[in-house]
Amino acid sequence: MEVDIPAALNALAPKLGGTAVEKAQRLTGGASMETWAFTLVGGGEPRPLILRRRSVPMDPETSRSATMAAEAALIRAAEHAGAPVAPLVRLCQPEDDLGEGHITGFVAGETLGRKIVADPKFDTVRPHLARQCGQILARIHTIPAGAAPLATADAQGELDRYEAIYRSSGAERPILEMAIQHMRRNLPPPLPNVVLHGDFRNGNMMFDPDRGVAAVLDWELAHVGDPAEDLGWLCVNSWRFGRADRPVGGFGEYQDLLEGYIEAGGVEIPLSRVLFWQALGSLKWGIMCLMMYSSYATGATNSVERPMIGRRVSETEIDLVNLLEAGL
Amino acid sequence: MIEHPRADELIEAVAGWVESIRPQLNPRDAFLSRVAVNALNAVKRELVQGPAAEAAAVARLSALLGVEGDLKTLNAELCERLRQGEMDVSTPGLLAALKAGIEDQIAIDQPSYVSVKVR
User: Which of A39, A266, B7, B74 is placed for a possible disulfide with A138 were both Cys, Cβ 3.0 to 4.6 Å?
Assistant: First the structure.
């Protein structure tokens, strides 16, 4: 269904505390999610806002995304827990004619990972980011599990899920196979589950050159699971943007991340557990890349981007070999 | 095989042309044109480096598994042994063989990729 977003936003302006909406423009277009920036006027100072909406209805059977309602509840709960977020303004209602979506405040800053790791304007704040991320994760992990309806998946569950996807692809890739078997035999001992962001990495955060992390974005993969999952995902080499020597997001060190996590009340997590989840993160990203290639191979999409993402499987394989060689 | 121009020269020419029109493109197409040039460059590297890399991988895996076959067959056989637990990370020579193979592959796919070093 085609929706006239600028018109629908304009009609919604009174409910947002203004009279009209200006400069509505689409920022990104994922396959299933859209992000729009717009300015609300007529209610005092013009107010920049962000709309995130699902452009195609979610299939609850196959999607592992949280619903937009769950995402909205989580953003509120994260703010309450002391994590920096773009504050929720409105969860879209059916009469808003915007489909499934929500409106949040606009937070200024930089999201491009390669700029965070390399741009001189982040040189001063960069050494503090890993500790700050640890602190933020500890706060996110205090969100009560009842804050939103979320799926639960521990290490075994994640491994089962991605192995099944890998098997269904029909691919025979020895490094992925070896990693699956090795991780299956070396699962970390259970820890009490917590609410996870689920996609906490360089690229999904808004960074400010003075304050560091200004907002944690993209809550759609939130779920309940092992606290080390969020820490390990942030350390996956695929989001270090060429700075493999700085394991935390390409900007910091493991020790700072783990210390920040404890400082803000998180449980003590051994580095070996973070490395397990980092490796599982590389495996998951490799299998996701395989699937994105499949969507091209089967004719479901025809963008040049999809088959090229298939050539990123090898980056996860070389990282897995190095992790296994180091004695994961 | 036609030698003038070679396949890699044709690819180079197309990649150069895509680069040259990028400034006229809208942001989405400019992004996709970058992906397209990356794809062309990967194909060019595969044409030049692929045959030797594949031959080396076949030789390594044949020696490791004690069977003959093409790369697809050998990979499938190795995966089966890993699934059955007949081979694993501790199998002598396995990690070294896989590492040599994946280094050749990354040199084709993304030569600028810097892999993780642990400790």
Answer: A266
What are the chain A neighbours of B85 within 8 Å (beta carbons)?
A: 181
The string of pLDDT tens digits covering residues A246-258 is 999 999 999 999 9
Most B CBs within 10 A among A34, A177, A289, hence the mutation to make, goes to A177
**Burial of B27 per CB tally in 10 Å (0-12, 13-18, 19+):** exposed
Closest residue in A to B79 (Cα) is A174
Of the candidates B29, B45, B36, the residue with the CA atom closest to the CA atom of residue B15? B36
**Phi-psi sector, A203: left (phi>0), alpha (psi -120 to 50), beta:** left
Q: Which residues of A touch B42 (CB under 8 A)?
A: 308, 311
Q: Which of B35, B98, B103 comes nearest A305 by C-beta? A: B35
Which residue type does B69 have? G
- Domain A5-105, what architecture? 2-Layer Sandwich (3.30)
A321 vs B28, B98, B119: nearest CB:
B98
pLDDT, chain A, mean: 92
Residue to substitute from B102, B104, B110, interface A, most A β-carbons within 10 A: B102
What are the sequence ranges of the domains in chain B?
7-109
ipTM: 0.94
